[in-house]
Amino acid sequence: MLFTLGKHVPPTLQLGGWYKFDHSRWIDQGRSFPSQGSLSALWNKNIDKRAQIAAASLHGSVDSSAEDTDLYEVLEVGRGASKSEIKKAYHKAALSSHPDKVAESERASAEIKFKSVSKAYEILYDDDKRHLYDTHGMSAFDSAHGNGMGAGPDLEEMLSQMFGMGGGMPPGFSGPGPRKSRKGDDEEHPYQVTLEDLYKGKTTKFASTKNVICNHCKGSGGKEKAKAKQCASCQGKGSKQGLRSIGPGLVTQETVVCASCKGKGSVYAQKDKCKKCKGERVTEARKVLEIYIPRGSKEGDKITLEGEADQVPDQEPGDIIFGLVQTEHETFKRAGADLLAEIEITLVESLCGFSRVIVKHLDGRGLHIQHSQPNARVLEPGQVIKVVGEGMPHKKSELKGDLYLVVKVKFPEHGWLEDKQVLAKLKELLPTPETPIQADVVDDVAYDETANLNEFGASAEGDEGWVDDEDEEEGEAQCAQQ
């Protein structure tokens, strides 16, 4: 007998064709599918399961008020709990709610609770995600923003499992899914930060003006019940072919949005335009935006505010993307997670040691170093010492890089010691001079103690400054003949 998929099967699964029916299964080109009764039952069962999993993965609960679930309450910790307390609470909650640790009758609810506990731990243990949750709640993790959280099982994957096939849906099946609208252009801006901002992290707010869909005409651009006419400029296409210069004497053809209808393909007469937006379909609005820069960020990192760009009718708004640009620091230089700075010590400190704050760090702390003689070595100009764990913090970690300090020794000013007895005593204390260099001929030479190394190489080479007597005589003879 012949059978067509009818009202008992969900419309999204209708094949729209005829299949041979053998009382229990449909047959098509050697491939068999579940019978109508088993398919309907399996569909209904998977719809319930799909709804439970989607709700649980997004908010940790299938309850309609799941969006208001407090993740801190899920783990039974306070809002000021440390990471170690959160981790300890998670282990305790996960152990008690693990599906393998409960009776069969309680396994379904245990799975939901276990997913809720895992999701709470995933967000609260991560510093960046925790900050987003504390600031915006679970709306910051809405699957509509494309962050991967809360997305339920894929329809095609579910159908594949239902039909017992290795992948894909049977011929004629097509999962309609939600219609995805186009996304508007992203806006990229440089954002200057100091090295202190990157070391400590920073949250800043500022007012922004952007285009939003006109709430009076709902983005149509016209008055209620007014009818738009086809745009004469683009013949209703919403776009036109234009020319763009790509170099001297070179142009390329490209499709551009019609300027007359703003891409809609239709326009309103002047009398029919919306009074609020004047037919533009959008109006200006001010909004306070917040940028969160995680500690340990670096120049070039991107901070994305999803959906905060200008709104355009019939499109999802694009993102505002801030690229971090670090200003030069007067003390520190950065390379990866390491920091480099120069410290200045006196000659006495170089020889005899010191115990003092040697540098002020990016968070305002003074770093104290004790370098005592006779055990410590003499610090020479240009020598490098390393302070472990005092570099830049790693993102999403408690670890830090190292701080490298280049030693600069400040010598006494000219004429600092005039007492000959003290000078003689100093000579006795300091190491003796090196063994004199032996030479057959010794000349006493004068020297300039204010010389500048930048002048090195400025002296004339070879005979550049020499004038030959014969050349000079020839020049005089030529002058006489003239």
From TrEMBL:
<keyword id="KW-0863">Zinc-finger</keyword>
<feature type="domain" description="CR-type">
    <location>
        <begin position="201"/>
        <end position="286"/>
    </location>
</feature>
<feature type="region of interest" description="Disordered">
    <location>
        <begin position="457"/>
        <end position="482"/>
    </location>
</feature>
<dbReference type="InterPro" id="IPR018253">
    <property type="entry name" value="DnaJ_domain_CS"/>
</dbReference>
<dbReference type="InterPro" id="IPR036410">
    <property type="entry name" value="HSP_DnaJ_Cys-rich_dom_sf"/>
</dbReference>
<feature type="domain" description="J">
    <location>
        <begin position="70"/>
        <end position="137"/>
    </location>
</feature>
<keyword id="KW-0479">Metal-binding</keyword>
<dbReference type="InterPro" id="IPR044713">
    <property type="entry name" value="DNJA1/2-like"/>
</dbReference>
<dbReference type="InterPro" id="IPR036869">
    <property type="entry name" value="J_dom_sf"/>
</dbReference>
<dbReference type="InterPro" id="IPR001623">
    <property type="entry name" value="DnaJ_domain"/>
</dbReference>
<dbReference type="Pfam" id="PF01556">
    <property type="entry name" value="DnaJ_C"/>
</dbReference>
<dbReference type="Pfam" id="PF00226">
    <property type="entry name" value="DnaJ"/>
</dbReference>
<dbReference type="Pfam" id="PF00684">
    <property type="entry name" value="DnaJ_CXXCXGXG"/>
</dbReference>
<keyword id="KW-0862">Zinc</keyword>
<feature type="region of interest" description="Disordered">
    <location>
        <begin position="169"/>
        <end position="190"/>
    </location>
</feature>
<dbReference type="GO" id="GO:0030544">
    <property type="term" value="F:Hsp70 protein binding"/>
</dbReference>
<keyword id="KW-0143">Chaperone</keyword>
<dbReference type="GO" id="GO:0051082">
    <property type="term" value="F:unfolded protein binding"/>
</dbReference>
<feature type="compositionally biased region" description="Acidic residues">
    <location>
        <begin position="461"/>
        <end position="476"/>
    </location>
</feature>
<protein>
    <recommendedName>
        <fullName>DnaJ-domain-containing protein</fullName>
    </recommendedName>
</protein>
<dbReference type="InterPro" id="IPR002939">
    <property type="entry name" value="DnaJ_C"/>
</dbReference>
<dbReference type="InterPro" id="IPR001305">
    <property type="entry name" value="HSP_DnaJ_Cys-rich_dom"/>
</dbReference>
<dbReference type="InterPro" id="IPR008971">
    <property type="entry name" value="HSP40/DnaJ_pept-bd"/>
</dbReference>
<dbReference type="GO" id="GO:0006457">
    <property type="term" value="P:protein folding"/>
</dbReference>
<keyword id="KW-0677">Repeat</keyword>
<feature type="zinc finger region" description="CR-type">
    <location>
        <begin position="201"/>
        <end position="286"/>
    </location>
</feature>
<dbReference type="GO" id="GO:0008270">
    <property type="term" value="F:zinc ion binding"/>
</dbReference>
